[in-house]
Design a protein that fits this description.
- The complex is a heterodimer of chains A (649) and B (343).
- By secondary structure, chain A is of the alpha/beta class.
- Chain A has 16 helices and 34 strands.
- In chain A, the strands form 12 sheets. Chain A has a 5-stranded parallel sheet. A 5-stranded parallel sheet of chain A has the order 20-27-21-22-23. Chain A has a 4-stranded parallel sheet with strand order 2-1-3-4, sandwiched between helices.
- The longest helix of chain A has 20 residues.
- Chain B has 343 residues and is an alpha/beta fold.
- Chain B has 3 domains: 142 residues, no CATH class; 39 residues, no CATH class; 144 residues, no CATH class.
- In chain B, α10 crosses α12.
- Chain B is built from 12 helices and 8 strands.
- Helices cover 33% and strands 12% of the residues of chain B.
- The longest helix of chain B is centred in the C-terminal third of the chain and has 16 residues.
- In chain B, α3 links the parallel β3 and β4.
- The chains are: A alpha/beta (649), B alpha/beta (343).
- The interface between A and B is medium-sized, with 18 and 22 residues.
Amino acid sequence: MKKRIGVFVCHCGINIAGTVDVDKAAKKLAEHQDVEHSVDYVYMCSDPGQNMIKEAIKEKKLDSIVVSCCSPTLHESTFRKAAKEAGINEFQCEIANIREQCSWVHKDKEKATEKAEKITKSAVERVAKNESLEPIGFPVTSRALVIGGGIAGIQAALDIADSGYEVILVEREPSIGGHMIQLSETFPTLDCSQCILTPKMVEVSKHPNIKLMTYSEVQEISGYVGNFNVKILKKPTYVDPDACTLCDDCTEACPVVVPNEFDLGLTGRKAIYIPFPQAIPATFTLDIKNCPGLLPIACGKCADVCEPDAIDYDMEPEVVEEKVGAIVVATGFEQYDKEKMKEYGYGKYPDVLNGLQFERLLSASGPTQGKVLRPSDHKEPKEVVFIQCVGSRDPELHCSYCSKICCMYTAKHAMLYKHHVPDGQAYIFYIDIRSGGKNYEEFVQRTTEEDGVVYLRGKVSKIFEENNKITVWGVDTLTGKEIEINADMVVLAMALTPSKNSQELAKKLKLSTDKDGFLAEAHPKLRPVESITSGMFLAGAAQAPKDIPEVVAQASGAAAKAISILSQEQLFHSPMVAEVNETLCTGCGMCIDVCPYEALSLEQGKAEVNRVLCEGCGTCSATCLRAAVKVKNITPGQIFEMIDASVGG
Amino acid sequence: MVEMEQLQKEAKEILKQGKVKFVIGYSKGSQNLTATPVFIKKPEHTSRLIWDPTCVQNLVKFIVDDKQKQSREKKPDERPVGIVVKGCDSRAINVLIQEKFIDRDDVYILGLSCEELGVVDEKKIAQKLEGKKIEKIEFAKKNNLIVSTKDGEKKIPVKDVLADRCLECKAHFPVIYDQLFGEETEREVKEPYKSIKKTESQSPKKRWDFWKEQLEKCIRCYACRSICPMCYCDECVADSINMAVTAETTAEEKAQKIKWIERSPALSENIGYHLIRAIHLAGRCIDCGECERACPVDIPLRLLNKKLEKAAHELFDYDVGFDHKKPSLISSFKDEDPEDFIR
């Protein structure tokens, strides 16, 4: 049946009209046999523009329209809505992109006009064979999963839970708190990090809507936005948290001492331990890797002394299955691999520390109760060299990106060091100081003006130990002088990298990562908390290095996005999905192998499409040797006509 | 050495037991040189089976035909088909199983080892005989051919007239079989992609000119497609006539059947046909060389497929038809797959 197609060519001010003769293009399209109406207008997306389309649909009895304008990612939904309001099926509206794909990339007006005509004609050919479709509705599970229990995950979980939705918060470590709980004070206000975080942690543990799963990992995810199925592996802690009275007898009995992760190896802990006093959940964990005698019980000392019998060596790993509607990924960061930083003597000299270790030294709950002491001889360091950009901004050897928070925390470190050791001297080697943020620049100024920290603009060439001191060779590029400092301690501001195993998790969640391994957002400006997988949102340093206020803001953003899904009774999916012709399908299963969305499966020897998972990419259709799969409204027949129109047929 | 008697005995046995509906093998060629495919249904006819370097055909095509025939029958004989295969042909079976065109149980495979030889190339023999007509051909000991022409007998070592593909063979030994005949011999192939070395070294322009000249010759008889065991699609992109029609196919759809390529044997259409066919065989072609052998106008089609075989090997570490349990190349994806060719 012949269609009655309307073509609407947009000028986009001079964005299109500057390079494309829109009048000529509209007239040319009017010659097409199926085109009943063809006009151009200065801004089609404006209200008068949309009204023009609606009126034309009614007056000329159009049954489908093509709007030649910008990319469909921008205004497709605008025009489809307009079409719907005028009484035609929204999938009878197609966009011809003559801006990004034509006017913006060409200069020759005549040729650009010709190309715009071809692009529009190809859309006309497509719409001529479009079916009328209805969006596919499906229900939503009103619960959320938050992966990662650092400040980002905590904030997101609290925000979602406060809105009345159930949240499952999964944390890999025995306690929530992430890196923030390890920090001493936070810039630029010098609030005690633990003091501001622990109330939130307690709130998580007490919140009726939050199901906290620590010492757990996401094992498998299937499903789609609104309806994810998650398998969570709960690792055994061998301690019953309800029975445990936190008496601490077990740690005294335990004979095994291993480096304490919480203090980054500056102190030791036992094989049965509580990560830190304010840990949530407040319970002990038996570290199976280091415990000498679980099977067969060779030691058993902890169980012997445990009065309430809270220790259970027979505890098994457990896989918990949960259904959720939205997921917030907040897997955080870790410091750059120390193996790659041997050039700075890290790992070789005990008094060369990384930023987080220094943070522990400064912390009132740290290994030295807040006194700055050298790990080697417990003496107060009188000269400390701080080095920024260790691994960051080094595209040849390490990470090309800026780790963003190091300028600020190094300034904080130097300032706090001076507060602890007023007669000491702090030096900071830097490339340049990045202190954008509320009250940040003032903070940096204070370190030099009030605390007398010496900033040296340049890089360090060599670090070595000599006479119980750490000699640092560097250069001050502002004076051009070579510098030698015999320091007592060196603190490295290590680059931040995505946390370990986050790549694996990203694969499980089908999230894309950027070149550095950070989780990729859907759009760097307009969709910064969304991932490309709908229903999954990003928060915190897993997406890029950022400081606490930014993390909290992003976490609340991600929570809001998640809530916008959870609050729907029904979600809608584009009906432009694959469709299997069962008579032709032989069940070879190749489409199933190639489908990037796992939308296809074999049911009774025939391929079957899960219409909600299908994104209509067409890979199945291209793979099928028997032409048994087609994507609606972008069928081989339509593609053929579109190619034909594009090459001038 | 492959004992012909043993092969015949086994064929006889499986036919007698009714294990297979028939055995596809080779019998003596009626004229000239090449063996003739034979379908043996009765145990007493198994003495017709032969095995020597004239058994050039890839008989797997007949499995494809039988499978397609079966799908149209109301009560098909579902017993397996017995088939005699060389190493190369056995890989074709693997591909068909991989693509779920056939099941492993659909075939009873009598695998033959080529040992140190392979199959002969008729054209190479013709060259040796300088155009003289063959009257009689025999295999003598030590792998020599005794060819009689009107000028008398001539002794030709088989190695001198082996097909090019046999010189580049990756599997002279069946990779899948139910019964094996002959030895699993070692063979070193120094240059597995020797035949494309020349074209690869040429400039793009020269190569283009070469292929234009070759494809200009094509008369679109589709012999290459008909003989190929991998060309089993119901609907072929190259052909606007054979459209897969079902009860649901509307008249409009039939009328709107897309013509991706015109049927006229014009250069542009020929290029389209052959390049599409080559791409559709990427990661599927096992280099049996049948397309080239069947081509009546001598287009060196093997070169196109060989180039893609090399690409699959180098880019994706994929060699076709060695393991039917692995996913096929076009349906598998690895994170390490190179993507620098996508620009």
